[in-house]
Amino acid sequence: MNRITDFKNIRTVLILVAIAIALFSLLVSHSLVRDLQMEEMSKMEIFAGAYHAIDNADENTDLTLVQSIITGNKTIPIIILDKDGQVENFLNVNINRADTASFLQRRAEVMRAKGNSIRIYHDRSSESDYTEVCYDDSLMISRLTVYPYIQLGVVVIFVLIAIFALLSFKKTEQNRVWVGLSKETAHQLGTPISSLMAWTQLLKDKYDGDELIVEMSKDVHRLETIAERFSKIGSMPEPVEWNVNTVLETALAYIEHRSPASVSFVRNFPQTPVTARLNAPLFEWVIENLCKNAVDAMDGSGTLTIDLFEDAENAYIEVADTGKGLPKNVFKTVFQPGYTTKKRGWGLGLSLAKRIVEEYHKGHIFVKKSEVGKGTVFRVELRK
Question: Given a cut of 90, is residue 378 above it in pLDDT?
């Protein structure tokens, strides 16, 4: 069962809110831009009429109003072309280059392509004699066109920061739970383990050589090891150079002794020792968890294969079973706290294994491959 946390719901809500804000912003901005463009088109029609009036005026015509219309345009870029397409005049076009004529020509072509041009016919009976007024969007419209995308970027950044903060908070909260639970478990185990050690020592003194007392001593030592592992969670134990072959053999001996006889353990270890920097008690815990899960996945019958090999930089451990297998869509989910396919258990084994490998040993653990009905291979990579 996969225990879904509230974080996923919060993340979904944040993403949906961001999409809603972005869509609303784009719609409002598009509406404003469209209205302003219609207004500027009307202004350009008035401007073209004023320009035409100047062309047709004689010495007795009062051009005061017409000139105020033309000079009143301070924001809309305008390029005026003759009937041959040559530039006659321009307004509000910034030019800081040597090829002024060719630049204006290219800019006018762009304006034409947008449909922003008005022809002024000097003789209504002839369509060959005209002046063409080409114009572009004003600075305000250009800014409004870009603004929603900037706003969208800000919203995306905000959402990403919020999700990152939630992830950090969630991870910190999980760390506190892990550490608190582990420390408390180690503390609670300490007193009864000390008492059991004393009692087993008394029994050894009284019944020296009794096999039952020897087995009891092993179990008490096992409890001591478990308490030591829990006590190390939350601290950062310094890894030291270890023979990985020996560490694996120790973990496998414990699991094999407590597994059904119908489970075959196959070890593929190199003859020469593979060394890596690790904390042996914690890393044995990783191998035990992987092997326990493998035995459970095989329902107590099958083959468990453990491979150990290395290259110049890393040591590799692969734990392969012939069990139920996993679908590809849960390859990453299996390491989340709470994920389990068993009716009993908290689903913390693989999550704990991932934490130990990646946070304490700076290594990597993942599902290398799996096929439903055929088995699963987990790989652990340790830096040498």
Answer: yes
